[in-house]
Specification:
This protein is of the alpha/beta class and 301 residues long. It has one domain: TIM Barrel (Alpha-Beta Barrel). The protein has 14 helices and 10 strands. Strands 1-10-7-6-5-4-3-2 form an 8-stranded parallel sheet. It is globular.
């Protein structure tokens, strides 16, 4: 196990951070607007989020670089600012983290579909390699491939990220199928865990897609199929439309109450995705600081 990972896990389950996209939307990010250029155009707003998660107790801060790849940035006329956007994203989270947290830089999907012929494996490899190297050069402690629906794209991103020499977390979205336990392309947790492990992931995980309760069984299945630590970042439930905007109704306390069940199922890293915020991270920290007997029994208190 890589030193960064083993050091983090030395004292039990690790609390990561929460959502960035929905937090940026609360600060004025418009529908359809790319959040990543805010690292250059509105860095103070991005820094507010990173700082809030650091103060809430996040042991890992991600970066506002989820869509900072050439294909996505080109849609917003920032393709010539790839290195700047990624570098600034790492710097913002690093400043907030200080010595209290690690910075794991975010890499999301390309926005193009391989199966539809919108891109090629060669192009994706180059795109992900470019972003991964920019994040590594900026000083990230590790990379997080997240919110992937296509296992082949995830593997290409993972292979490119591994070239940096940094530890890499690889996460899929399991939100499809009768039981919402498959990716968009029909891949099961077991298939994903095996193939991502073989491709070189240091940590395997799942994020986004649905609420925290649905992640317990997915976590258990991932854990059974790999010897790598498991990373889980659920949404604050499924959103509902209210007065023209999406509202997440799960409370921080309800969210955190499921954390012991995730630990019991094998989760080593727990945080939040869409709809979560620093209050969710505080609740997770409180829940996971309880005596080991209660944390490990799946207590819903």
């Amino acid at each position: 196990m890589r030193p960064v990972i083993s050091q983090l896990l030395a004292n039990g389950p690790v609390v990561t951070d929460g959502a960035w996209g929905t937090e940026l939307q609360r600060r004025g990010l418009a529908n359809g607007e790319s959040p990543d250029p805010w690292n250059l155009t509105r860095p103070d707003q991005v820094a507010e989020i990173a700082q809030a998660y650091a103060e809430a107790g996040s042991q890992i801060l991600l970066t506002n670089t989820f869509g900072a790849n050439r294909l996505r940035l080109a849609q917003h006329e920032f393709a010539n600012k790839i290195r700047d956007v990624n570098r600034r994203g790492v710097e913002i989270s690093r400043t907030a983290a200080q010595e209290g947290a690690r910075v794991f830089a975010s890499i999301g999907p390309s926005g193009k579909m391989l199966l539809a012929g919108e891109t090629t494996e060669e192009e994706l490899t180059a795109v992900f390699r470019e972003q991964a190297l920019a994040l590594a050069d900026a000083g990230a402690d590790a990379l997080v491939i997240e919110t992937m629906g296509d296992l082949q794209e995830a593997k290409l991103a993972l292979a490119a990220a591994c070239l940096t020499g940094l530890p890499v977390v690889a996460c899929m979205v399991f939100d499809s199928g009768k039981n919402r336990d498959r990716t968009l392309m029909g891949i099961t947790p077991e298939q994903a865990a095996v193939e991502l492990t073989e491709t070189g992931a240091d940590v395997i995980g799942a994020n986004c897609g649905h609420g925290i309760a649905g992640f317990v069984e997915i976590c258990r299945r991932l854990k059974a199929a790999t010897d790598r630590p498991i990373w889980i970042k659920p949404n604050a439930g499924l959103p509902a439309m209210e007065n023209g905007r999406l509202v997440y109704r799960t409370t921080p306390e309800e969210f955190a109450a499921v954390a012991p069940s995730l630990v019991e199922a094998g989760a080593s890293f727990i945080g939040g995705c869409c709809g979560t915020n620093p209050r969710f991270i505080k609740a997770l920290r409180t829940q996971l600081r309880k005596p080991a007997a209660s944390v490990g029994t799946g207590s819903q208190q």
